[in-house]
Amino acid sequence: MLIAGNWKMFKGPAETAQFCISLRERALPAGVEVVVCPPFVSLAVAVQLLAGTDIAVAAQNVHWEPEGAFTGEISAPMLRELGVYGAIVGHSERRQHFCETDDTVARRAHTALDAGLSVIACVGETEAERESGETEAVLRRQVSVLEWDEQLVVAYEPVWAIGTGKTATAELAQEAHALIKSLLPVPVLYGGSVKPENAGELLAQPDVDGALVGGASLDVESFVSICQAASR
Ligand code: PGA
After folding, report:
1. Residue 112 and residue 139: Cα distance in Å, rounded?
2. How far away, in angstroms, is 165 Cα from ligand 1 center?
3. Catalytic one among 33, 100, 125, 157?
4. Which pLDDT tens digit goes with each residue over 168-185?
5. Residue 141 DSSP symbol
6. Is it the case that residue 167 has pLDDT exceeding 90?
7. Phi, psi at residue 102, to the nearest 5°?
8. DSSP label of 54
9. Are the C-beta atoms of 68 and 77 separated by less than 8 Å?
10. Which terminus has fewer CB within 10 Å in the chain: N or C?
């Protein structure tokens, strides 16, 4: 089981330090891989404060070139130099607000994996796509650009469930996860309004290998509760 906290654009270095110090003091369940994904400016402090623990630190995005004239971007070698373990790519907020496409997501994923980072690649349908019966086609298309790698994990995040409080039912998540795994045999995390109250049921599904948690990962107590639910 893998539980990753996607902090999005929350927590600068000072708040990150507070969170990491408090997380470090908590007993996390054995057998659950725990990852936090702070904003770029907070990665260094998180790496430093979580060194020597089993908690890994990942970035929320990564560019496909090692360096170059790409204002505002961060490369895989830069993340490696910081001691960062991996990166999320293709989050639906990147696709929706920053014009990321299947192609750019694939390039980011491949380069990061080549550079030795672990990758959490996000896929998921919008509400309109689900309502018009396109979920399977969308997932097939988004997954088809990714190549199997030992360090690759996919996160199924139905866009309509992100930050909305609407969670996919456990059955619906299971169905999507089974499809994704039939296309690409890698661990698949569920994401979209995962909370301590619903984590147990979602994580109990046979093809749900963990969770990518947004809002509920910002608070140490609720994040730790979700990690505990993953160990049951
Ligand atoms: P949420 O976000 O848990 O706040 O819905 C999940 C995500 O976007 O990764």
Report:
1. 22
2. 9
3. 157
4. 899 999 999 999 999 999
5. H
6. no
7. -55, -35
8. S
9. no
10. C
201 is catalytic: no
**pLDDT tier at 164 (50, 70, 90 boundaries)?**
confident
Q: Can you give the pTM of this predicted structure?
A: 0.97
> HSE on the CB side for 100, CA within 13 Å?
26
Instruction: Please list every protein residue whose CB sits less than 6 Å from any atom of ligand 1.
Output: 6, 157, 162-163, 191-194, 212-216
Helix axes 220-230, 196-203, angle to 10 degrees: 20
Nearest CA to ligand 1 atom 3: 214
Hey, what amino acid is at 122? Answer: C
pLDDT in tens, 109-151: 999 999 999 999 999 999 999 999 999 999 999 999 999 999 9
Q: Tokens in use for 56?
A: 């890994």
State the catalytic residue, choosing from 63, 91, 110, 177. 91
Take residue 209 and report the two structure tokens written for it: 């290998």
- Known catalytic residue at 157: yes
Structure tokens at 210: 């963990």
Atom of ligand 1 nearest to the CA of 194: 3
